[in-house]
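Lab intake sheet, docking and co-folding queue.

SAMPLE TYPE: protein with bound small molecule
LIGAND NAME: flavin-adenine dinucleotide
LIGAND FORMAT: SMILES
REQUESTED OUTPUT: full 3D complex as structure tokens
PRIORITY: normal
SUBMITTED BY: R.K., bench team

The fields below were copied directly from the construct record.
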Amino acid sequence: MNEHWDVIIIGGGPAGSTAARYASKENISVLVIDGKKEIGEPLQCGELIPSVDELCRLCPDVPDMEDLFQTPEHAISLRTDKLKLVPPSGKALEFPFEGIMLNRPEHDKSLIKLAKSKGVEYLIDTHVSKVSGNKVHTRKGDIFTGKVILGCGGTNDPIRRDYWDEKSLNIPVKFMLIDGDYDDSTVELHFGSSAPGGYAWVFPKKGGANIGLGIQKKHSKGISLNVYAKKFYSKFEGEVIYQGAGSLPMSGSVKSLVNDNKLIVGDSAGMVLPSNGAGITTSMIGARIAGQVVAKHILEDLPLKEYERIWNNQMGKIMRNSKRSLKMGNLLFKSPDFLVNLAFNRVTKRLLWRAVTCRAKFGIF
Ligand SMILES: Cc1cc2nc3c(=O)[nH]c(=O)nc-3n(C[C@H](O)[C@H](O)[C@H](O)COP(=O)(O)OP(=O)(O)OC[C@H]3O[C@@H](n4cnc5c(N)ncnc54)[C@H](O)[C@@H]3O)c2cc1C
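RESULT FIELD (auto-filled):
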């Protein structure tokens, strides 16, 4: 393995592999280092992403979605066409929504394959302990140098930890995969006291479902996520075939994405939409910009700060709307279930949908 690289990327998840794919060019060497033996495993995800058509509607300023999202059929469990917002009363509001339920480990592997096809090299089972200047130190004691270094290590990324002061709110999330027959056309988001400060989800998969929830501690009255999870899970019958957990950054993307020769991308930069928890596609949108800017920086001296500017052009409005929606949601989260039930009605239906899908409240961007 070479010691010197043009670009070193910490983390080979959706952000890292996508940034690598777009950074790699004929005269640019790119190395991805990941601590896992098998990137993408164990599963830590609800596995829902919007279809490409839906993404074009949700993120109108993001160009060329087809090139970015090339999800192969074997990484798709099923496609859905409806989304239900469910208050505690169970009286759901239904919306058309084209979703893709992934097989997430296969999805992440397909991104690695794409990156490798562009010449990217991977070093797995290797944990990065710290970055100093242009040196990347691994726990095994190796040192690699990179002209540019990208932190795509998710919520525990070492560059974000050591070089950024801005804090993000990370909320704990738990989920399970369960066998059974579920409405395979509809994804559900449940609100109210079953998941205070967050939401619970029921996402159908082939022959079962991915069911989970996230909560905010400040709204959970001292009760642990485990207790909320047990209660929500008890509503479903079927064999539990897998259980997992993780954390989601819910403060929106950080103000600055670049620090000298270091960039942060994906969850490490807070690129999850706070009002709906979507992070796979948003990370990939950020990662494509980062990869393209890094390539131009190396070949043509483009300032790395361009990454920040283009991200704000493509996703700034959506991120701001999503943060505002979460703030509005926080008011609702404090309310007893009967008020949440009242807030979910025909009159508020459009407003709730705009909030979840990160549009401006009254139709003005
Ligand atoms: C339970 C749960 C459910 C979710 N459900 C959904 C959903 O349904 N839809 C959706 O869009 N998003 C969902 N998300 C969010 C989504 O998973 C993330 O936004 C997405 O994975 C971000 O990609 P990433 O590449 O930034 O980070 P990650 O996917 O976390 O990848 C980071 C990679 O970096 C590696 N790494 C970390 N630190 C180091 C280090 N020091 N050295 C070397 N390697 C390192 C890790 O091994 C990992 O492979 C969910 C998240 C959780 C936790």
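REVIEWER NOTE: Residues 306-333 form the longest helix (28 residues).
SIGN-OFF: pending second check by T.M.
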